[in-house]
Amino acid sequence: MKKDTINELFIELQDKMDYAEPNTGHQQRFLEKLNQSKGVATLAPKKKNPWMLFLSVAASIAILLSVGLFQLNKTSSIEDQVAEISPEASKTQFYFANLIEEQINELNSEKSPETEKIINDTMAQLKKLQLNYTKMEQDLLNGGNSKLILSAMITNFQTRIDLLNEVMIQIENIKSIKKSNDENYTI
C-alpha cells in the first residue's frame, strides 16, 4: 500500500472541490439540522449588557486620569531639577536666597523719602539679576557647561549681595548726612 502525500491528495481532489460560497442562510440551516440530530446547538447573537459598556468606559477614564496625575506629579520644579544635577548648588542657592531675603527686608525697613529712589533702583537691579539667574538655571537644565554655569550662578548671588551691601552703606551715609544737617540746623 502506497501512502498518499498531501500534495497527491489535493491533485486528486482538484476537480472535485467546491470553491463557491454557500447560499445565504446556510449557517442557520446547518444549525437547525444539527439541533434536530443532537438537540442543543444555537448560534444566537450575544446580548450586550449596557453596564459592561459603561464600566469599560469608566475604567478607561480612570486609567487615563491616573496616568495623567502620575505625569503631573512627576514633573518637578526647576529648583528640584537643579538639585538633582548639583546638590551643592541647591544648598548654596538656599543659603544665598535666605541671606538676600534678609537684606531686602532690612533695606525695605530703611525706606524713607530720602532713600526711596535708591531702594527702588536697587529692587529693579535685583529683579534683572534674578531673571539672569533663572536663565542660567534653564541653561543648566538644557545641558550647558555645568561648571561654568554653576560658577556664574554663584557670581550672580554674590553680585546681588554686594549690591545690597553697597546700598545699605549708601543709606547709612544718607542717614548720617541728614542727621548732621538736622543738628547743624538752628531755628
Walkthrough of the structure:
The chain is mostly helical. Helices cover 76% and strands 0% of the residues. The protein contains seven helices and no strands. It has helices at 6-13, 26-38, 50-74, 78-85, 87-109, 116-141, 146-184. Helix 4 packs across helix 6 (116-141). It is rod-shaped and about 130 Å long. The protein starts with 5 loop residues before the first helix and ends with a helix.
Q: Compute the number of helices.
A: 7
Q: Which structural class do the helices and strands define? A: mainly alpha
Low-confidence stretches: none
Rounded radius of gyration (Å):
42 Å
Q: How big a fraction of the residues is strand?
A: under 5%
Summarize the helix and strand pattern as letters: HHHHHHH
Shape: rod-shaped
Give the averaged pLDDT, no decimals. Answer: 78
Helix fraction by DSSP (H/I, runs of at least 4): over 70%
Largest sheet: none
Distance between the termini: 144 Å
Number of strands: 0
Q: Could you list some keywords that capture this structure?
A:
single chain, 187 residues, mainly alpha
Q: What's a concise summary of this model?
A:
With 187 residues, this protein is an all-alpha fold.
List the helices and strands and how they pair.
Blueprint (H helix, E strand, L loop, with lengths): L5 H8 L12 H13 L11 H25 L3 H8 L1 H23 L6 H26 L4 H39 L3
Helix pairs in contact: 4-5, 4-6, 5-7, 6-7
